[in-house]
Amino acid sequence: MSQPTTKVQDGGWGWAIVVASFMAQLLAYGSPQSVGVLYPEWLHAFQEGKGMTAWVGSLVAGVGLIASPVCSACVDNFGARPVTIFSGVMVAGGLMLSAFAPNVQFLIFSYGIVVGLGCGLVYAATLTITCQYFDKRRGLALGLVTTGTSVGAFIYATAQNELIVLYGLDGCLLIIGAVALNLMACAGFMRPLNMPGYYLKQKQKAALERNTEEQLFEKPPLDDLKITAGSNATTPEKTLMVKELLITMDAKDLAIQTEKKKGSFLSGLAIMKVIKKKQQAYSKYVNSMYEILQDQAMVAFCIGVFLFSLGAFPPVLLIEDVAQSQGLIEEVSVIPLVSIGAIATCVGKLVLGMLVDIRWINGIYLYAFTMFAGGVSLLLIPVTKTYMGLQILSAVLGFFSGNWSLTSYITTKIVGLDRLTQAHGILMFFGGLGIMLGPPVVGWFFDWTQSYDLAFYLSGSCVVVGSLILFVLTLPCWNRKRLENDRPDVHYTSNCDKVASVA
């Protein structure tokens, strides 16, 4: 196991990690992000309603976000390399199973849930390993890695269209599933710097079985248990990280139970003590989440993200079917609308990320403006009667959808770095919930009215209302703690899971 020293950071093998993580996100998210190309094919193949079929694309995008705490815990305990290998099996297996789907319900499981969870695991693993290898250039590295999703959507949208023409829908899914197996090759480059929690527990349990309790409970050596990848020089007096303390506490509790298991009464007391400690930890966690949701700005941001995800994600899935339903094009073009939106999103992430670094620009108001502009674009889709108009609106909406890169910055401004992980987890839950509900709702409106017009008017209205709520509830006139004008100097001195969950 390699040791986390400052010599390996911000260069060297770290750039190989960036390339591997970029390719991993491209391979995993390429098909889900361009699922709009597959959506019309599924409608034609299974003859189900648009609302039911839309669940496939909404789940593959939303499940990974909602399950992000579980995915992060898997990376924390087992490491980025094993998790990426397992996710490669899930993504490839889900895509290949989808080729044999007899109905939409099977697709909801194979493509929506299996592939969606695999993508969530890839996302957590790639960002965690990138954070471990970078400190000063961490923002640049994460920016390069996360553009893999947009580049993947741009490439896969055209590739899947051509594969469907050549080999049919089933052959297309089998081929892209086989290509997704290269995720395991990407995992081979993810050489770990830190020992995952699972191996730390196994090491301490083995020490316990060898009756080396003195060695077990002493302060872990820095070379063995150092979690911080980007910290400064460490002294022997430095306190243990939270994860290490929890692991050591679990091992001590195990030792107490082992030592006293002959006496049932004393053993029972020891078990009750362990349960009480766990309950106190969970109680503190719940109270912390409750305090976060007491912040008016945080509540407004959660509402805004939910409404934006609810209204702005459906075009990613349905825009090709919109063009075909209106008779603007008979089949998917050489450069699909999904590809145009994907490349515009990539540009939007970079431009908006640079704008929010400007000192006099308020990140929350910038996000509210992008929501408002995106909502107006959605309202214009029903009145657009040319294919070129849809191309322009796809580019505009894609650009402003790049505001996803602002979420971590805004969350840090609202709640501070100490509560960043929990707050961002709450935010991702609302975002994932909106993504899951948006396309089916739009599809049901089409099934009801046989037109997308009312559905997109509703979607655009939701996004505009969300932008107004976010803007009004974060005005300085409210009696709450004002946001600092200066950007906080973010130093990640704990483990990289905090940064990974944020990215």
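Above is the first protein from milestone M3; the second protein from the same milestone is given next.
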Amino acid sequence: MQHGGSAASVSSNMAAPASGSCGFFVEKKKRFCKMIVGRGRRFCGEHATMERSSSRIVCPLDPKHTVSEDKLEKHLKKCNSREKDKPVYYVENINAGSADGDEPLPQVSLCERSRAELQSLLDKLRTATGDLHCDVDDRVLSHPVVEEELNNPQNGGSAHKHLKQQSSIVGHLEELGLLGGGRCFVEFGAGRGKLSHWIHEALKDRDPLKTSEDLQLLLVERCSTRFKVDGKHQDTGAQFERLQVDIQHLDLSKVPLIRKKKLPLVGIGKHLCGAATDLALRCLLDTPGHRAETAPPPKRLKTSEPAAEPDPDSGSVSNDPGAGSDHGPVSGPVLGLAVALCCHHRCEWHHYVGQRFFLQLGLGPTEFSAFCRMSSWATCGLRPTRQDRPPQDVTNQGGDDEEHEVAEEPDAVDGFLSPDERQTVGRLCKLLIDSGRVHFLSTRGFRGRLSRYVDASVTLENVLLTATPPPDCSP
């Protein structure tokens, strides 16, 4: 919070502070502080340093607030900005990628490149995408559980767009056979938890006797979130649990809820910005504790099929009564995932799961960085450009209400391509980056698919990445 000065600096024609209110004048807001002061005091606790007799000092953990000097030691033990004990599932950089320790490449703006360099990048892009066997199909779905809320006239335009996206994602889960009881849904970048809410709503009446016992919803969000909807489900019997942790440091195999029943896992997410998508893929498919179990199970669970009982010998979920081992995994197998993608300009090479894919195409981190920047043209090609700036947070894990920032290149690039050409190039960049993710999924035994799950009028970031076992692994 920025303050401009004290009451002494206020001109004589400025209104005086209200009776009993703080005498500190907030220059930015052109008014006095409205906090109530103690008896005999002129300033509130926050601005008590303005009084000569005050013994308050700036908190060494967070300069945004002050504390009484004689109570500093006690305050440091309970200050909200203190370093808290790490949870058991926190493992530093476990999902950061094998190149985490490499020196990051310098960020080069497109306007700093010569025309020859830009043309060379475009040639490499077109060559790489020309041989792709991966495309984006149009598949806008919906689910009846969201229908009533979609028709609610009290919802504004923004809420209606979010509901359309949530409805389509739940519809894709249903179509892929991933929507059912007997599993644990892990929502990455959960925000308020609306996607998990609709999954629960879709399942609560399907098998009410077993849903409360065999449905787990794990919400992963780095930031503290207001107006969470999962709090409304605490009395429903469903197992909702929220983890406040960065995906980069999350070891799923150590989460108590997952270890408890070892239910099969389904990864979900609605708009995981940039590198957060790669972190989530590694978290779900490369966690050491269940890496051996991420390959598709021998028989994929159907929507109406309850989960198999944990084998008492192995401690893992098994559909084979005779299956067993001395040392079973600490979590169930991964059945699949459905993640809405966005903000490719926030991707980072050292987090990217498709490094091998890029290298096989003769491309490397330099081209990847440039293509990430060009990817923003897919959503801003017809908008006025603004001064280029690097993203402040490459692993943004935004929730439902977040407006996803568009990174745009400066006007110097405008003369090189027309707006329509820039949009086409941006889409190719996104497709190439996402194809690397599909390739990563194939190396883990899954069949990845890219679909436009809502119309572009709902959101320009309208591509959904899904993954399921190949057909020969299905019953």
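Note on the second protein: The first strand starts at residue 25 and ends at 26.
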